[in-house]
Amino acid sequence: MRLTIPAKAEYITLGRLALAGISHLRDIPDETLHDLKLALTEACTNSVRHAYEAGKEGTVKIVYELGEEDISIEVLDEGEGFVLDEASEADRMSESGLGIAIIRAVADELEIEPGDGQGSRLRFVKRLGAAA
Tell me, what's the pLDDT at 117? Predict the structure, then answer.
């Protein structure tokens, strides 16, 4: 499933609601769903806060993939983009909180890279176990 929202904080809730809807397709424990919602919120907040210059309109795309044994969530923007290394991660954590660290703690896999052409792509995967 794909969802595109304006890069504004008030729309992040839509991404969380879509995730809650998807969770009904599989018996995802409440604790896991809460963790996924937190990770999604952090990923979207990074795009909303950092991708676009102040006053510039933009979008955040969220791609949900529910597999047999996992769920992957990809958050993409077309903003300035960033390269994450240990130094820049430490800077971001001191500047704006522990967003990436929270996602790493929740997810089983995490990829952060430049988007196609511009922007950023953050993808995380949570293993759910065998299909119920």
Answer: 64
Tell me 90's DSSP state.
Answer: H
| 53 pLDDT tier (thresholds 50, 70, 90) | confident
End-to-end CA distance of the chain: 20
In the CATH scheme, what is the code of domain 2-127? 3.30.565.10
Q: Which residue has the tokens 């430490």?
A: 90
Distance from C-alpha of 52 to C-alpha of 1, rounded to nearest angstrom? 24
Instruction: Output the CA–CA distances (angstroms, integers) from residue 127 to 4, 33, 81, 115, in the order listed.
Output: 24, 12, 28, 24
Q: Which amino acid is at 25?
A: L
